[in-house]
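At this stage, I put together a protein sequence along with its fold in token form, as given directly below:
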Amino acid sequence: MKYTDISEIVLHGEKLEGSEVTVAGWVRTARDSKTMAFIALNDGTCLKHLQLVINKAEFPEEALSPCLKNGVSLEAEGVVVPAVAAGGGHEVNVTSLSLIGDCPQDYPLQKKRHSLEFLRTIPHLRVRTNTFNAMLRVRSKVSFALHRFFQERGYTYIHTPIITGSDCEGAGEIFRVTTNGYEDAKLAKDEAEYIAKDFFRRKAGLTVSGQLEGEVAAMAMGKIYTFGPTFRAENSNTPRHAAEFWQIEPEVAFAKLPDIIKVAESMIKFVISAVLEECSDEVDFFERAFEKGLRAKLESVVASDFAVLDYTDAIDILKKADVEFAYPVEWGLDLQTEHERYLTEQVLGKPVFVTNYPKKIKSFYMKQNDDGKTVAATDLLVPGVGEIIGCSEREADYDKLLSAMTERGMNLDDYKGYMELRKYGTVPHSGFGLGLERILMYVTGIGNIRDVQLYSRTTGDLMA
């Protein structure tokens, strides 16, 4: 390829000093004076822009003028030299400049800073802003770090189905998958006939989790993880929920709750360390633009020993708190974000695993504790966000699993294979789910899940 990545010049300019390079990218800003012009060019390979320095006497006005507009794409040839401006670095003295793609005056990204709400209306262009340039690069690094963590520890990467006939969470918040049209529904005499004419001859939906199939794989492979898109048809407009998101879900055979807690803590620290090491410029940007003290927060997490707190003790702490919470605090109720943040930010000052939740507020597959009231489950709560991981030991006893599913009125035929895992060589096993977007919100300081995705998928939002 004839083009030099701008990141090579930004990061290793001293090696290229004095050499001729050809670069291509999009104009972020342009400044024009009487004798000189300056272009900030970005090709997406790094957060920083490359300054192109142009001696106007060497370029016809009609050729130069179209290149001095925000949003145009262009190609430039020139010599790499030390930057004249304070701050060091390198720039390119341009010897040849040509327009690749013009951009009219109605280009929406004329200002240096736009609100995230405005940028959501132009998702096809918002990727050219510093915010999304940085976010997408961090998203890529976090994803690769997650793979690295599990691959280096002997886990097998499993691709679980996107289309499924079961609801892992049992909450019914599934997007239906069907080839039947509107007329098919009108002509069918009942639901059974409508389903019988469908592609799979049974109800099908987009997966809410790869866990159930992941457990199947773990019963043969020992340590596995899944990493892919999951879907929830939850009519929610909170900044933390999306209809489509990516999730990583390890499943570990022969592991009990304390074992999987150690895996989760090690994974979080590994990922955050990777971000600090490999995305330093992006962390600095997010600290300036979104969350003061971000770097110190992330470094503190890596250095901390995560706390472990029993749910019952957490409720006692919250009840004694001199705070008027918007949501009630009672044993048997789920913790809300305000409760989670109080525990992590005001009480403990670090991440905490809250364990042994009441079984009535947790999923059917979680191991029932001997007290008959709680399950061997934990949520990892972190300062600034609240819950980012849901984790549990899975119920390995066939009769207890059957009882939990029956109590919830679940269709046992949909889970026959899953239940038979408890008949044929059952073992203790545990796992968790980490929403990729949740950890991205934490490491970037971006407060809305819609802004850590290329295209957000939320209620009423299917913008292409």
Residues 130-151 form the longest helix (22 residues). The chain has a mean pLDDT of 94. The CA atoms of residues 3 and 66 lie 21 Å apart.
